[in-house]
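notes to self, project folder thing:

trying the whole complex as one job this time. last attempt i did each chain seperately and stitching them together was a nightmare. two parts in total, labels are on each line so i dont mix them up again. if this works i'll redo the older ones the same way
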Amino acid sequence: MRVVITGGAGFLGQMLARALIARAGLIGSHANPGLTELVLLDQSRPSSRIEDDRVSYATGDICDSALLERVLAPGADAVFHLAAVVSAGAEADFDLGMRVNVDGARAVLEACRRQAAPPRLVFTSSVAAFGGDLPEVVSDSTAAAPQSSYGTQKVIGELLVADYTRKGFVDGRSVRLPTIVVRPGKPNRAASGFMSGILREPLNGQPAVCPVPPDTKMWILSPERAVDALIHAMELPAAAWGWNRTLNAPGITVSVAKALDALERIAGRETAARVRVERDPEIEKIVLGWPARFVTERAERLGFRADSGIEEIIRAHMRTLAIQ
Amino acid sequence: MRVVITGGAGFLGQMLARALIARAGLIGSHANPGLTELVLLDQSRPSSRIEDDRVSYATGDICDSALLERVLAPGADAVFHLAAVVSAGAEADFDLGMRVNVDGARAVLEACRRQAAPPRLVFTSSVAAFGGDLPEVVSDSTAAAPQSSYGTQKVIGELLVADYTRKGFVDGRSVRLPTIVVRPGKPNRAASGFMSGILREPLNGQPAVCPVPPDTKMWILSPERAVDALIHAMELPAAAWGWNRTLNAPGITVSVAKALDALERIAGRETAARVRVERDPEIEKIVLGWPARFVTERAERLGFRADSGIEEIIRAHMRTLAIQ
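result (full assembly):
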């Protein structure tokens, strides 16, 4: 099968690409020949190349219809639409967020619609879909009420994916991912990025700043489980999704303080002491507006899985460091 | 105050215009000079002119930024964004619906954003925001899950209005209107149009077709109360809305059978007998997907009001016929 990943040069896109390559087959069908071609589309090429004959690269603007047409035209069985301007970025530059997150999603959907056989499309949405007067625990029936431009744009993407699916233009599936922790590499403009930073940087011998109070709770998922969720979302048959094409992915609720306790238990007091709290009202406003507690019954019924706890997440991150 | 109505040549736009003119003042402030100018923007001029020096007309495409800029540039205190492709129309022509209902709403919001003083904006949304696995009674916390392109496009409009408001680009308010009954004039492409037709046409001595089973329940509001709701939405202070800029307007639940019973009581058996049931699967699919029962606590707390019953609605329509 031929797969396209938008945002394929980003950390999640790269992890997803490696996971797809490592998999023997896809969609669990005997008739399926597994991955035959994987196109990574992004603004620029990733810094590290994946050594595999099946991988190719395409670079350009996510709103460029001709580019998308070219990438999809040989036939795509699955598209993972990951390209996005992240939360603090979309808040700082409203027009850029609208262009990439709304117009970009629409361009990808339109390109899928123009194919003879509309592909499966997995759209990465976010916990930022929720906000406002939230119930104590968010459930599958909680109304989206985004309080950031990023969240707004992601919910618009979900709505488009659902309606394009209903019209038969694509076979779409939107997955609202928790905050991904531990995000490897450099900090990005995601407002939630500190939750990775306070674990990643100290483990790397570096200081880190926590911009929110230590009792701040976050709804998180490891990159490994996030990639599993995206692949599972793609592999599930359309009937398993039914009319409802938007899903709250499972995660775990962890406070900053509990995460630092776990870091201390695993890596020692000196490591954990590299984190200092220095509150940032801008970040706080966005992050404290997100819900931290969920029940994700539908996702669990559909076979999505979260991490067992923050210690597992930290240890998994340390294993990836050891490999590098 | 200077007011702009998009969709100003439509029946609701015309009724709203006449209601605004009939009002002594607006926003209930002593400092407010009342209506000084009213611009009716639409694709074409309305068939009947409103005789009032304060009224002017603008014609063109709702996505035409230059036109919107020209209409808003002298300063607008309030914009009522009514222009839309209705439900069955947006279902039949997906691209037209996206263009008018999504791109049009965005163009209006962008034009508001470019003003020195962002106006109040009232956006007409719809009960079509709801669908899928609905609770028996829709409440203020029920999640939007549109099952039509029209509903999808309206919810996208609501999300944009909310985020533009949060960013301070506009002071927006979205009102989800029930099905408007009795809609005067010719039938349009609204899937719910029959609910007006089965009352309006028989009263006019004409036959009418009901495309859904008689036990079909609808959530309805008279045009008079809908206009009241739009004006009230505009006049409420921003603080009354708070962060939540989307509201389910009040209405009443009426079955087709009960509406025809009321018609018979008011206008006689012969009149009611002009309606015959001839089911239309396309219409049925859209209309039966809409919720018919609501509790609208927030709207009532904010002072919005529904009609007292279907008889009041029919009698109000008969009075407008007597005036014409």
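what i see at first glance: The mean pLDDT of chain A is 94.
need to look closer tmrw
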